[in-house]
Amino acid sequence: MTDRTLHLPVAAQPSVDSLVNLAVLGEEYGYERAWLPETWGRDAVTVLTSMAHETEEIGLGPSILNIYSRSPALLAQTATTLQEVADGRMRFGIGPSGPAVIEGWHGADFERPLRRTREYLEIMRTVMAGETLNYDGDVFSLAGFRLRCDPPEEPVPIDAAGMGPKSVELAGRFADGWHAIVFTPDGLRERLEDLERGIELGDRDPEDVRTTLSITACALEDGERARRLARQHLAFYVGAMGTYYRESLSRQGYEQEANEIAAAWASGDQERACSLISDDLLDDLGAVGTPEHAREQLRKFEEIDGLDAVAVSFPRGATTDELESTIEALAPDV
């Protein structure tokens, strides 16, 4: 059975409390986990700490923390501390993000993202196991320290985000799970083959690698409003967030649409960029419209073999009331 989780809004919210309230609402409606993104707004660690204090059962985790702005040892310390605060409910998502954020916001060189991801996974596990850190990698050479506090009683699983074949293969080979975003059903099935290849290369049990797909979702009685919000959101990702989403969409059979969306956005014609997302493409990428239609589209993804969880994500322009309505409409038991 596919779990249903929340991927809390990437857009700025009124306050930390407003994000905490969404996690509390998710717990009330039976969602398995609340994932919190971190981009260039509030930091995820502080908000997750607040969520841990105000919830009791729902799983929590960042998706994603990038692998350039914090050292691997610091991320391991953070995971250890959050696991203590949350009484064992944490699961971590890490990944490279993209050059626009890493270079333009953090001022770091976006170099060797795949190798760096692998080394983060290996170093974080060593630290969280309470072992002395002696690591000689291509990116990091570390020695002589070990975690000063007790390691987590329950190890914190670490998932890796990725969109391309090699990054997904890496997740299968080294991570505890894969986080996917902006995928059609057919595109996801193709990347799941890369995940399976990584699992085989790592000589691992497929049951030990969990796949989570974040799906743009908006379920409103005003279905056209929901679809308009989703078009704006997806056009922004394809047009304004570097090349990763455009390239991923191209690999999934929408090369012409992806290039035209990006070109329209780059020329300043955001309205045209949104209009280029057809109804078919919108339904292929998300679960948006009236509650009935959104639930139908969400079930289409949940039926994909090899997918363990769908994460209900939200358009950037949705209001608090629209977020809450979508959480209620797409709750696991509805």
Report what the structure shows.
It contains 13 helices and 12 strands. Strand 8 (158-161), helix 6 and strand 9 form a beta-alpha-beta unit. The radius of gyration is 19 Å and the shape is globular. It has 334 residues and is of the alpha/beta class. 49% of the residues lie in helices and 17% in strands. Strands 1, 2, 3, 4, 5, 8, 9, 10, 11 and 12 form a 10-stranded parallel beta sheet that branches. It has a two-stranded antiparallel sheet with strand order 6-7. The model has no long low-confidence stretch (mean pLDDT 96). It has helices spanning 16-28, 44-54, 72-85, 99-104, 113-128, 165-174, 185-201, 223-240, 244-266, 270-275, 279-285, 291-302, 320-329; strands spanning 3-7, 33-36, 59-62, 65-66, 92-95, 133-136, 141-145, 158-161, 177-181, 210-219, 286-289, 309-313. It has a single domain, classed as Luciferase-like domain (TIM Barrel).
Jot down its keywords:
334 residues; alpha/beta; TIM Barrel; ten-stranded parallel beta sheet; two-stranded antiparallel sheet; 13 helices; globular
List the helices and strands and how they pair.
Layout: E1 3-7, H1 16-28, E2 33-36, H2 44-54, E3 59-62, E4 65-66, H3 72-85, E5 92-95, H4 99-104, H5 113-128, E6 133-136, E7 141-145, E8 158-161, H6 165-174, E9 177-181, H7 185-201, E10 210-219, H8 223-240, H9 244-266, H10 270-275, H11 279-285, E11 286-289, H12 291-302, E12 309-313, H13 320-329
Parallel strand pairs: 1-2, 1-12, 2-3, 4-5, 5-8, 8-9, 9-10, 10-11, 10-12
Antiparallel strand pairs: 6-7
